[in-house]
Design a protein that fits this description.
Blueprint (H helix, E strand, L loop, with lengths): L56 H4 L13 E5 H11 L3 E2 L1 H6 L8 E5 L9 E4 L1 E2 L1 H9 L3 E4 L3
Parallel strand pairs: 1-3, 2-4, 3-5, 4-6
Length: about 150
């Protein structure tokens, strides 16, 4: 393969329409724009959402919903994932940093521990929030659930 015989892949390029190059081209005269009107003129731009005078969809449909600006969104982790993490790390103290380093939550995520799964080890777990079932299972196993202060 040399520079002089490089070509685009077959079918990947198209010939452009040569508009307004005389009647013999088949695309002369109005240059495929039809006759008269704003759309036939140079520099025509329609507004975003313009539907040719028809009532635009964003005005036809009603407003709904609400975005709570103070909502806190938590990354949910079940007790079985925490149990697996403690076995993998070989420790009984699970901190937020350990959870994030293990890739179970993102750097900026708030972490909530949920009570799905069984806990066999006595663990001290630190997280942003706990469900009631998670706290009861952790304490039943002899562990401790600690919320972070934020």
């Amino acid at each position: 393969m040399n520079l002089h015989n490089l070509k685009p892949a077959k079918g990947s390029t198209h010939n452009t329409k040569r508009l307004g190059r005389g009647q013999g081209s088949g695309k002369g005269g109005t240059s495929t724009r039809g006759t008269k009107g704003a759309q036939a003129r140079a520099g025509y731009e329609h507004k975003v959402g313009f539907e040719g005078g028809q009532m635009p969809i964003q005005r036809r449909l009603p407003k709904f919903g609400f975005n709570n600006p103070t909502r806190k969104e938590y990354k949910a982790l079940n007790l079985d994932a925490i149990q697996a993490l403690s076995e993998k790390l070989g420790t009984t103290v699970i901190t937020l940093e350990a959870i994030k380093e293990a890739g179970l939550a993102g750097r900026r995520d708030l972490v909530k521990i949920l009570g799905n799964g069984e806990l066999t080890a006595k663990l001290e777990i630190t997280a942003d929030a706990f469900s009631q079932s998670a706290v009861s299972k952790i304490e039943a196993a002899g562990g401790k659930a600690t919320k972070t202060e934020k």
